[in-house]
Design brief:
The chain contains 27 helices and 31 strands. It is an alpha+beta fold. It starts with 6 loop residues before the first helix and ends in a 9-residue tail after the last helix.
Length: 1007
């Protein structure tokens, strides 16, 4: 018979299953995807908002990945070593054609874009080409020359995967990080956002949401603050986040306010709201642009040196040299950072170009003079954000600085010049505020966390609209959203007059150097519009009045157009149907008002005739055969007339009819990766990861083998190792270690992991037995002593119990021999109880005295064990003693270089067996004592004795029965054995009771 489960059991199993899975995947990650650095914050139960450190314990990772070419050609199925962050940048001077920094600026852009061309010019060693399907930037690597060019999204995916691995290491062995929120700049178009999402998808990361940099900083700012409640008369606060990073400059104006909203039931709650009201940016104004100023100055001064002129060095030649440019870029960034705190600095290069050395010096004044044009762009960015927000600088409560380049002295001077020094604020972490805001957003979107309720509204930042062709064949266009529109706002309903299937193209209006460019994002294609319109016409709709209405909104996660509903609507004439209540009224004769009007003279209701006929027929109970067929015909005819009359009286009314239509929404713009190409990209990233893992494991085996050879050298000089090993073992070990060491520096450097492990095992097979002898020799004396002590205690315990049993047996024999004399003595001393009812409640002091006297002479305490209880522990103790004596004798005959026969694990096992037997015996005594106490307590309760010292009492609070006012320990009631502390407590109380029995008792005075 199949086993069935109740619905409750199934529900509990489902809840348990899902709860365990939620706990397993509850960790979420916030990532601040910067141009120069990537920062990440982990949120997990027990780990609230903690920065994910790199393997070098740094709080941020340089945004770079490098392929380190192997000395030999890579084997089939293997890839070169990948390096990330500062390790990757360190290789730029040696392998400039395989180091990929600052990839964020290239996402979602075609190779014809000016930004991509500028990147290629600044990194001349990289082999940039257009992807064959998407037309976006891709790089051909010399280290992986057999592979297709790597898309920018694939390289960025590798960096995200490195961050993910670091986060999982922080989360612990059960950590599983799959959900992320990633920051993006406000100027990112739909294509650039899709590129970020594609990079995350390639490594199995689920993007919960994208959030703009400025809003992420604002969200972090709001987590520790409250703002005026606007529906209580408060005025909102306006703050600007000025974010100048390595690649760009952004200014975001936000409105901060509190609001009272309805909570569960009749209660209200206050929530905080952060809303983007305006934003502006400069895509090329950032730390990199300032670095390039220094690089250009370096090159111009370098070509003017005498050595460079002698070698006919040109500016173009230096800029086209990958290694020289890598060196210059690395030092230019360092010089710029130094100039933020110092007035002058310098650097030098050995063999910068064509083996020519170069020394360079720069001061802050010269640098700021070079950057005058850039300083003016700072003010323009700030002012444009205010214009979009329709605010004046005086209406801002503060300007919050964020980004490393915002600390540049001339940038802060420019901001103070525009806004005044009193508005500039550094009250957020200028490096980590954005990543903390992203992590807070990730926790908010995850079901596993409960955070402060802050409602955010991101901006669209670009105007967006749609295009279509009307029924007359003319192209139409309409703007749906402006740059101030909010993501996730109330949907917009758009009406179309098209009555045949058509398509709608949605686009973003993106400003470029050539003007406004309309970038297509999505297309809505109807599937059954024509058929739906035809069906409505058949239902009575007027064809000219039929309209298609579509509800549209901007998605809060990525800002893309979302179609919520598309339906054809019209007004059609339909008969007004009576309600259920009208039917009930008619049933009982309470029809509509027109039905209740009195009949005029000469009128007769057809319904009345029919009712009368039916009533007459129903009221007649006798069978009649004289009903004429003509009467039946007349009745039927009148009924049909009544229905026709009623139908003609029901009015028709116009009613709105809406029928949803089928449609599809297709992505437009840069072609998406075909499914086969997407799978291929994922597979080769996985293969790269597997290759890295295999390399790490091989390097670990190599390091272990190399370290073990050094350990062997030390062991051969150790006295304890020499004493425990034979001459032959040491000679063999020394030979093998020497061979392994020589092999490592020859062919072993490139040996596979299995061979390295085999060499290591060969050495350990010699060393391990000797180390075991040393360890056994060290542990054995102490463990043998402990076992002997345990055996001695067990023997003494057994002898003591046997003595008590013999003493109790002797006492019982003497007691039975004098039973009759004791009975007569008890009869004489104890008087007969009074038969008068009035004395029943009085104590009998003579009875009490007699009982006390009997208790004093009751002899030794009855033992809690029998001889049968001691059989098992006696046999075990004897067998262990015999085993120990035998093994000790065998061990003493062996030399120190022989493998021991008396092992520590065997001694430990015997000790545990002896301890377990003692514990079992103690538990048996405790249970026996508990049963004896219950029997005695029960007999004393049933008796009428009033002796206080030995009476069993129950406290009024329902506690356990006590003897002498103290609770005894109860075992086995919770299904568990007693602990060592409980057994010690039991023995202590038993000893106390025995002592009290030996003390003289004070007798009561007679009343």
């Amino acid at each position: 018979m199949a086993h069935t489960f109740s619905p409750r059991s199934i529900l509990l199993c489902v809840v348990f299953f899902f709860s365990t899975n939620v706990l397993a995947i509850s960790a979420v990650l916030g990532i601040d995807l910067g141009t120069e650095y990537i920062k990440a914050t982990l949120v997990k139960p027990g780990i609230p908002l903690e920065i994910v450190l790199t393997k070098d314990s740094r709080r941020k990772e340089t945004s770079a990945v490098a392929f380190k070419p192997s000395q030999n050609a890579p084997k089939s199925g293997s890839y070169p070593e990948r390096l990330y962050g500062s390790d990757a940048i360190a290789l730029a001077a040696r392998f400039p054609n395989d180091v990929y920094p600052n990839l964020k600026t290239l996402l979602g852009l075609s190779t014809d874009d000016s930004i991509v061309k500028e990147y290629a010019a600044r990194h001349p060693a990289l082999q940039l080409e257009a992807h064959k399907t998407r037309g976006t930037a891709a790089f051909k690597s010399k280290a992986t020359d057999k592979e297709d060019a790597w898309m920018v999204e694939e390289l960025l995916a590798m960096e995200l995967q490195s961050v993910q691995r670091n986060a999982e290491a922080l989360a612990g062995p059960d950590g599983n990080v799959r959900s992320v929120v990633i920051t993006v700049p406000p100027f990112y178009t739909v294509e650039e956002k899709r590129a970020v999402q594609l990079a995350a998808e390639l490594v199995g990361l689920k993007v919960l949401s994208l959030i703009s940099d400025g809003l992420a900083v604002g969200l972090n700012y709001a987590t520790s603050r409250t703002f005026p409640i606007i529906n209580e008369g408060g005025k909102p606060e306006y703050h600007m986040v000025f974010d100048m990073g390595a690649g760009s400059t952004k200014a975001t104006v936000m409105k901060f306010q509190g609001r009272n909203v309805k909570d569960i039931g009749k209660f209200n709650k206050t929530v905080q709201e952060v809303q983007v009201v305006g934003s502006s940016w400069d895509r090329t104004l950032g730390g990199d642009a300032l670095n390039y100023l220094i690089v250009d100055d370096m090159i111009s001064k370098f070509v003017e040196t005498a050595a460079a002129k002698k070698a006919s060095v040109t500016v173009e030649g230096v800029k086209g040299h990958g290694r020289a440019m890598a060196k210059l870029l690395k030092d230019a960034e360092r010089l710029r950072h130094v100039l933020s705190a110092n007035t002058e600095t310098g650097t030098s290069f050995e063999g910068l170009y064509d083996d020519i050395d170069f020394k360079y010096k720069i001061n802050r004044a010269d640098f700021e003079k070079m950057a005058e044009a850039h300083a003016e762009r700072v003010g323009a960015t700030l002012q444009k954000a205010l214009n979009v927000a329709e605010l004046d600088i005086k209406q801002l409560d503060s300007i919050i600085l964020h980004g490393g380049s915002s600390r540049t002295p001339f940038v802060q001077k420019q901001l103070e010049k525009i806004a005044g020094g009193d508005k500039l604020r550094s009250n957020v972490n200028s490096d980590e505020a954005a990543v903390f805001g992203a992590a807070f957003r990730a926790a908010e979107l995850s079901a596993g966390f409960r955070v402060k309720e802050i409602r955010i509204s991101d901006g669209s930042f670009y105007s967006a609209g749609m295009k279509w062709t009307n029924p007359q064949g003319k192209p139409q266009s309409q703007r749906l959203w402006t740059e101030r529109s909010l993501l996730g706002a109330v949907p917009k309903e758009v009406t179309f007059t098209n009555q045949e299937d058509f398509s709608i193209q949605f686009h973003q209006q993106v400003p470029t150097t050539e003007g406004i460019t309309e970038m297509e994002t999505k297309a809505l294609v109807t599937k059954n519009l024509t058929a739906t319109v035809a069906s409505l016409v058949e239902r009575g709709c007027s064809q000219p009045e039929i309209q298609l209405k579509v509800k549209l909104r901007l998605g809060i996660e990525d800002g893309e157009v979302e179609v919520e509903r598309a339906a054809v609507e019209c007004e059609a004439e339909v008969q007004e149907k009576g309600s259920v209540m009208d039917g009930v009224k008619n049933l009982f004769g309470f029809g509509k008002d027109k039905d209740q009007q009195p009949l005029k003279e000469g009128e007769q209701s057809a319904d009345g005739e029919a009712s009368e006929s039916v009533s007459t027929t129903a009221s007649t109970e006798t069978a009649t055969t004289s009903v004429d067929s003509s009467t039946t015909s007349t009745t039927a005819t009148s009924s049909a007339d009544a229905e026709s009359a009623e139908s003609s009286l029901v009015p028709k009314k116009k009613q709105l009819v809406a029928v949803p239509i089928s449609f599809v929404v297709e992505k437009q713009g840069i072609p998406a990766l075909p499914k086969a190409d997407l799978t291929k990209a994922k597979d080769r990233i996985k293969a790269f990861e597997a290759s890295d893992k295999s390399r790490r494991l091989r390097e670990e085996a190599l390091n272990q083998l190399e370290g073990f050879t050094y350990k062997v050298r030390d062991l051969l000089d150790t006295e304890s190792f020499v004493a425990a090993s034979t001459e032959a073992e040491r000679a063999k070990l020394e030979k093998k270690a020497s061979e392994a060491s020589d092999w490592l520096y020859d062919d072993g450097a490139d040996a596979p992991r299995e061979e390295l492990k085999s060499k290591l095992k060969g050495l350990k097979d010699i060393v391990s037995p000797v180390e075991k002898r040393i360890e056994e020799s060290r542990k054995r004396p102490e463990m043998v002593k402990s076992l002997k002590d345990a055996l001695g205690q067990t023997t003494n315990f057994i002898d003591t119990i046997k003595g008590k049993i013999a003493e109790a047996d002797a006492y019982m024999s003497s007691l039975s021999a004098s039973a009759s004399a004791t009975s007569e003595s008890s009869s004489t001393v104890t008087p007969a109880p009074s038969k008068d009812a009035e004395f029943d409640g009085l104590e009998d002091e003579e009875a009490s005295t007699t009982t006390t006297t009997t208790a004093e002479n009751r002899g030794p305490t009855p033992p809690l064990y029998t001889l049968d209880d001691l059989t098992e522990i006696t046999k075990l103790s004897t067998s262990i003693i015999d085993w120990l004596e035998k093994k000790l004798a065998e061990q003493e005959k062996l030399p120190e270089t022989a493998d021991p026969v008396l092992l520590a694990k065997d001694i430990q096992e015997k000790t545990k067996k002896l301890e377990k037997a003692g514990m079992d015996l103690a538990m048996k005594s405790a249970k026996n004592f508990d049963k004896t106490g219950k029997k005695k307590g029960g007999s004393k309760k049933s008796s009428k004795s009033k002796t206080k010292k030995v009476s069993t009492k129950t406290d009024s609070d329902g506690s356990e029965p006590t003897v002498d006012g103290e609770n005894y320990i109860k075992f086995g009631e919770d299904g568990k054995g007693p602990s060592a502390e409980e057994i010690e407590e039991m023995i202590r109380r038993l000893q106390k009771e025995q002592q009290e029995k030996g003390e003289p008792r004070t007798k009561h005075d007679e009343l």
